[in-house]
Design goal:
The complex is a heterodimer of chains A (183) and B (600). Helices cover 31% and strands 19% of the residues of chain A. Chain A is of the alpha/beta class and 183 residues long. Chain A has one domain: Rossmann fold. In chain A, the strands form two sheets. Chain A has a five-stranded parallel beta sheet, with helices on both faces. In chain A, strands 4-6 form a two-stranded antiparallel sheet. The radius of gyration of chain A is 18 Å and the shape is elongated. The model of chain A has no long low-confidence stretch (mean pLDDT 94). With 600 residues, chain B is α/β, with parallel strands linked by helices. Chain B has five domains: 57 residues, no CATH class; 91 residues, Glutaredoxin; 214 residues, Rossmann fold; 78 residues, Ubiquitin-like (UB roll) (Roll), CATH 3.10.20.600; 84 residues, NADH-ubiquinone oxidoreductase 51kDa subunit, iron-sulphur binding domain (de novo design (two linked rop proteins), Up-down Bundle), CATH 1.20.1440. In chain B, helix 1 packs parallel to helix 3, helix 9 crosses helix 12 and helix 18 runs antiparallel to helix 19. The chains are: A alpha/beta (183), B alpha/beta (600). At the A-B interface, helix 5 and strand 6 of A face helix 24 and helix 25 of B.
């Protein structure tokens, strides 16, 4: 039987959840025996080369590109897992949700103390190549269907490992109280 | 400003439990409560500024920004919308040139929305500088704005004659109408003040409680706790002082019967409070009235003063040595949750109106930690009649479990909206006949306000009473032209979101999430799972601390239960899942802010 294929991505996240995946330490050798990776920053494959079994999503959606990537994952993965606070709730980036976008942009590009003197032309970046910001940061399940949620900021390596093994082997997930942390 | 604030503080003897009154006076004088005032109040009352500020921020009618020399608060209840509120709102915006939530540049007019103001039988209605304006039309809105710009006083802006009954009293002079449609033993205009007091002073307090228990009367606010038992608990609770509260904070949209009692029969109510005081052993009564009824203040104060002069209140009442009782009026400042008895007590102590954890119950530890009885306006009126005519007599009205009569506030699609006093035990169908609503045109009836249930024709044979359809008395009728989900359910859910005190996470968060689900369904993006989610998640609200949170999902839950087809016909049958996310909508704001064309 061929090995299950895993894809991962970081949307509006800090890559902390990916770091936590790497925190499984030497178990990464077991992981290679257990699964194959497709599109993922871990192996630097940029585009889906085939249909995958499991997609791990870090981060929520803050711009149009995040939405496209997430929808791409939904189309190409049988099971999608929101990994970490930002994917599940929007996390720190969602702190901007109470502030109008114009105010955010003006603070970032026109009025902030580090840009005030330097942005002489008063430009707010608007190149058509840039992804467009969304009105607020959305958790992944508000954009596409998400099958599982792994809480934590980041989720512990042990939790990610156990969840992945359970998904791949079809066994029940062992989630002792200590590994589930919400911060 | 400084001297005025100082004067107000003196008036309330620098008592921090009177913070509500202090803030109400300052708000009324200046149209807002400034930072300087807050600092001054905090300093003089020896409390922190944030403590003052947190009370201010809790109440709808307090503001830290100027609200205009004329503050227009337009009611946004479901019935107001049905009666043409939208057009009135548009006319107000057009004439003033501002949007709701704003103040004109010259500081003259402020436009605000507000939850039900207890005028459901004469909507659309608004409050302008504490005066009520009813049955508004776009034309009236235009006139009002013109009058304001001409500098007229609010009292000069009424076009029609004053309302009926005591609304014409010199100290009221309001256009509000009572619309009393049916009278019974409570609303009986033949009432002579003082009879019950004369009778109780010949009895022991225990005998009074016994008679009340014998009548089987239960609380008329909605929860239906036996009144005699409540009094007995309070009488037996240890405490240096005891208090009688009258809860006149009727904030449940669709309820206005207490307003009518306060207007027509305040003496009956005050006598009821005296009776309760005698039975419980309390010397002080507090009438807590919602801010929306501020226009009755002068009138009620006048009647209290007259009662003192006749020795119905004061020391050694009616010559009974040691029987002392007096009443003061406490106004709220716009918060539905203060109708919950422990929140009401918190508010009367000058704090945010957040419900307390129970136990201890108010009868053990209430106002200022002393044993306190909180009774509904109607309950206190009924006890006077029980004392006069006996518990046996009272039991002759209504059913075995629900004795006596109930005042109903009827509004919505019917010919005769208003207040009806009927014995318990009538069916919804009987009531519909009585109020001039044709059965074949009625689509739904909201029984007991948003926190009650929305029922359809198959349940119209149900009986009003504690054993079947318990209600605080509000009945809102919707005919077949109304869209139950968008006109009713959404409006009521928004009401709960607005009025949540924010203390419990269930009530702070879930109603907003449920509202998004309803909007998604109305947007034709819903799927079956959304209906299931709402039913499932709605149950979680039962974990909230008070009745507001526990019932906040009722509009949604009862409408799904009784009008499921309305939801099912709006959802997508072909899909199992739809997040409802719309990328083109989500990027609009950023495109406008950066001047970009959406190239998604």
């Amino acid at each position: 039987m061929s090995k299950p294929i895993v894809a991962t991505t970081s949307l509006a996240g800090c890559f902390g959840c990916h770091m936590s995946i790497l925190d499984i330490d030497e178990r990464i050798l077991d992981l290679i025996h257990l699964v194959e990776f497709d599109k993922s920053p871990i192996d630097d494959i940029k585009k889906f080369s085939r249909k995958c079994d499991i997609g791990l999503i870090e981060g929520g959606c803050c711009n149009s590109e995040n939405v496209h990537v997430l929808k791409d994952f939904r189309e190409n993965c049988k099971i999608l897992v929101s990994v970490g606070e930002c994917a599940i709730m929007g996390g720190l980036p969602a702190m901007r949700n109470g502030i109008p976008i114009r105010e955010c942009l003006e603070e970032a590009y026109l009025n902030g103390p580090t840009v005030k003197e330097n942005n002489k032309l008063k430009i707010i970046p608007n190149d058509p190549e840039l992804p467009i910001l969304l009105d607020k940061v959305y958790p992944c399940h508000e954009v596409v269907k998400i099958d599982y949620h792994l809480p934590g900021c980041p989720p512990r390596a042990d939790l990610i490992w156990e969840a992945l093994v359970a998904l791949v082997t079809g066994n029940e997930l062992k989630m002792p109280y200590e590994v589930i942390k919400y911060d | 400003m400084k001297t005025f604030t100082l004067k107000v503080l003196e008036k309330y003897s620098r008592d921090k439990t009177r913070l509500m009154d202090i803030l109400i006076d300052i708000q009324s004088e200046f149209g807002f409560i400034s930072r300087e005032s807050i600092a001054q109040i905090a300093h003089e009352l020896q409390m922190s500024e944030v403590d003052v500020e947190q009370t201010i921020s809790f109440y709808h009618f307090f503001s830290m920004k100027p609200t205009g020399r004329y503050s227009i608060y337009l009611n946004n209840s479901a019935v107001a919308n049905m009666m043409g509120r939208k057009e009135v709102a548009q006319a107000l915006e057009k004439e003033t040139g501002i949007k709701f939530g704003e103040v004109t540049a010259d500081g003259l007019i402020g436009l605000y929305e507000t939850s039900c103001i207890g005028m459901n039988d004469q909507e659309p209605a608004a409050i302008i500088n504490n005066q009520i304006f009813t049955k508004l039309t776009p034309f009236r809105a235009k006139e009002i704005v013109r009058d304001i710009k001409e500098g007229k006083k609010v009292s000069q802006m009424f076009s029609a004659s004053y309302g009926d009954g005591a609304n014409r009293d010199d100290s009221v002079k309001s256009v509000v109408t009572n619309n009393i449609r049916k009278i019974g033993p409570i609303l009986d205009p033949d009432y002579k003040v003082g009879g019950a007091i004369k009778k109780i002073i010949t009895l022991s307090p225990e005998d009074v409680i016994h008679e009340i228990k014998n009548s089987n009367i239960r609380g008329r606010g909605g929860a239906g706790f036996p009144t005699g038992l409540k009094w007995e608990f309070c009488r037996n609770a240890p405490g240096a002082r005891k208090y009688i509260f009258c809860n006149a904070d009727e904030g449940e949209p669709g309820t206005f019967k207490d307003r009518v009692i306060l207007t027509e029969l305040p003496r009956l109510l005050f006598e009821g409070m005296v009776v309760a005081g005698y039975a419980v052993g309390a010397q002080e009564g507090i009438l807590y009235i919602r801010y929306e009824y501020k226009y009755l203040q002068e009138y009620l104060e006048k009647i209290l003063q007259a009662a003192r002069e006749k020795n119905y209140l004061g020391k050694d009442i009616m010559g009974k040595k040691g029987f002392n009782f007096d009443i003061r009026i406490q106004f709220g400042a716009g918060a539905y949750v203060c109708g919950e008895e422990s929140a009401l007590i918190e508010s009367a102590e000058g704090k945010r109106g957040e419900p307390r954890d129970r136990p201890p119950f108010p009868v053990e530890k209430g106002y200022l930690d002393m044993p306190t009885v909180v009774n509904n306006v109607e309950t206190l009126c009924a006890v006077v009649k029980v004392i006069l005519h006996g518990g046996e007599w009272y039991r002759s009205f209504g059913t075995a479990e629900s004795t006596g009569t109930k005042l109903l506030s009827v509004s919505g699609d019917c010919r005769f909206p208003g207040v009806y006093e009927v014995a318990w035990g009538f069916s919804v169908n009987d009531i519909l006949d009585m109020v001039g609503a044709s059965e074949k045109n009625v689509q739904a009836v909201q029984v007991g306000g948003p926190s009650g249930s929305l029922i359809g024709p198959e349940e119209f044979s149900r009986i009003l009473g504690y054993e079947d359809l318990a209600t605080g008395g509000s009945l809102i009728i919707f005919d077949k032209t109304r869209d139950i989900i968008s006109d009713v359910v959404l409006n009521f859910t928004e009401f709960f979101i607005e009025e949540s005190c924010g203390s419990c996470s269930t009530c702070r968060i879930l109603p907003s999430i449920l509202k998004q689900k309803v909007e998604k369904i109305l947007d034709a993006r819903g799927v079956m799972q959304d209906i299931k989610d709402m039913e499932e998640w709605g149950k979680t609200l039962k974990a909230s601390r008070c009745g507001l949170g526990q019932t906040a999902a009722n509009p949604i839950l009862t409408s799904i239960k009784n009008f499921r087809h309305l939801y099912e016909e709006k959802i997508q049958r072909s899909k199992d899942f739809d997040s409802g996310f719309d990328l083109s909508k989500a990027v609009q704001e950023a495109c406008v802010a950066t001047g970009r064309v959406p190239n998604i």
